[in-house]
Structure formats: structure tokens, C-alpha cells
Amino acid sequence: MSAFTKDRPPDTVPAPAPEPAVGPPRRRLVTRRARPVPGTRIPRGMRGPVAVSLLPGLVLFGTFFLVPFLVLAATAFARWSGLDFAWAGLDNYRQMFGDPVFLKALGNTLFYAAASVFIQVPLGVGVGMVLALRPRGWKTLRTIIFVPFVISGAAYALVFSMFYNPRAGLLNNALGAVGLPGRDWLFDTATARWAVAGTFVFIIGFVVILVMAEIAAIPGELYEAASVDGASTWQQLTRITLPLLRNVIGTAILIRLLVDIGMFDLVFILTAGGPDDATATLALYAYRSYLNGEWGFANAVGSVIIVIGLVLIVAVRRIFRIGERAL
What we know:
Keywords: Cell membrane, Membrane, Transmembrane, Transmembrane helix, Transport. The chain has helices at about 45-75, 90-95, 100-130, 140-150, 155-165, 170-175, 190-195, 205-215, 220-230, 235-245, 245-260, 265-270, 280-290, 295-320; strands spanning about 80, 85. It is an all-alpha fold. A two-stranded antiparallel ribbon has the order 1-2.
């Protein structure tokens, strides 16, 4: 060390300045205008022709749906017999919910709806999945299963009225052949509701066709991959096919529920709501009110049916996520 540097403090190396913390790159919030989906905007100069083309449909919708709906909603709060009219507030609804026949009709309607949801639709889905495997004679079976669906409800009711006949009906004769007693199935309060439900829960042709069409649209690569991995036919049905049927099962349940809450012709021909209102439905209850000249009260019953239908539509759509893609 030289004399010049003897008393000089050693050079100190300045500590490097701390680097600023590096975080994730900031993103600039950019608001973009939503691009219109191609084909959804009306081209210039075409708005007039498009409006004219929609006009017949709007007129029909307003005439046969919107106007009757508004009349029903308004007259549900009135005492109306077709000629006399007087506002009654909520009296129709108080009378309705205090009537034990209405509660019985509501219970029967929900019972028929439950029979469709828990028996008819699962049975149709199971048969459709089996027929989709194309066993021997599957085309013939599909046709036989679908034929009852195209028969009118009135004709179907007449056929089953003879089937349940206590004296000459096929059911009692079959039971008698094996030593079992018969009974008046349609006019016994213990069996009437079950007998009515038994006439439609086995009409599964519509559900079977829906399921088979949906299964035909499932990509075959999924089943090929599952076969390579060693999946059995049962595993492919339960782990591939059934989950992918979510949309069509929800649709089938929704259609059946909407049909059942308005069920009229089948019950009217079979039992007319008897015995002791054991088979009456909401639609039949409203029909009786119309016959009695209580049009406002009948429309109040109709508004309850509409509300039940809307609740069922929203609930089924959310439970089964109808409309969302499965793949």
C-alpha cells in the first residue's frame, strides 16, 4: 500500500439499488364494442319487407294467444258469466283455494305429472338406449312402440274403458284366469287414479324417438376410445351415453309436464273426474266452472295452470341446463 493510499478508506462498492418489484403485466382495460353475429342484422333497405313478412305471424299470435291471455288475466279478478260482469278482486282465488275439490284436482294433476316424470320418461329413455344398440328386430320394435303415440287421446280412452270394464274387460278376465279377484278399477276411489295413470305412462314412443335421434348424433370416436380403454357396453351406456342425453331428457320431461298439467280429454272420457273427484284434474275443474256459468272463476283456475306451467319451465330448464352444449 502506498503512502497516498495508506490512510484512505478502502473503496466501497455501492450496493446496487433494489430493483422494483416486477408484477404481472398490467392490462389495459379496453372496452370493445360487441360485434354483431353475422346474419343477425337486417340489411339496409330490408327492414320494410322483413316487417311485412312478420306481420301475419304477429297478427295470429296476438289474436289467438295474446288477446285471450289478457282477457283471462283480467277476468280472473271478476265475476263474469258471459253477460254479467263485476269486479271481484281476489274473491275467485279465495274461493278456489278454500274449495277441497280444487285441492284434490291439484293433487291429482301433480300425481299424473309425477307418473310421467318418474315412470314414463325413464322407461322411454331406457328402451331408447337399448334400441339404439340395434339388436335384432329393433326397427319393428321401434314401430310398435311408436304407434300408440299417434292414436288420439279420445280413441285411447275408449280402448282402456273397455280394458278396465269390470264385467267383460280384459284385465279382470286375465286376473280371473289366475284365480285373482277383479274390481271396478276406474270407479273405485282406491284404484281410479292409478288406473288413469296406467293408460298413458306406457306410451313411450315419443321419448324413445327423441333418445334414439340424440344417440345417433353422439360422435362414434367416444365409443371407440372407450372400447380401447376396455370399457364394457354397460359402462359406455352409463358413463357416455346417459350424461350426453341431458338435454333431450330435460326436453322430454318438460313436454310431458306441460301436457299433464292441462290433461282433460283422457280423464273426461274415462271417468269424468269421478268417483268422488278422485281423478279430477285442474283442466276438468275449470271446465265444470265454465258449464256452471262461472267464467271468471274458471279463468282464475286457468291462470293458476299458467303459473304452474311457467314455474315448471324455469325449474326444468335450470335443472337440466337445457340448451347448453354437452360436448
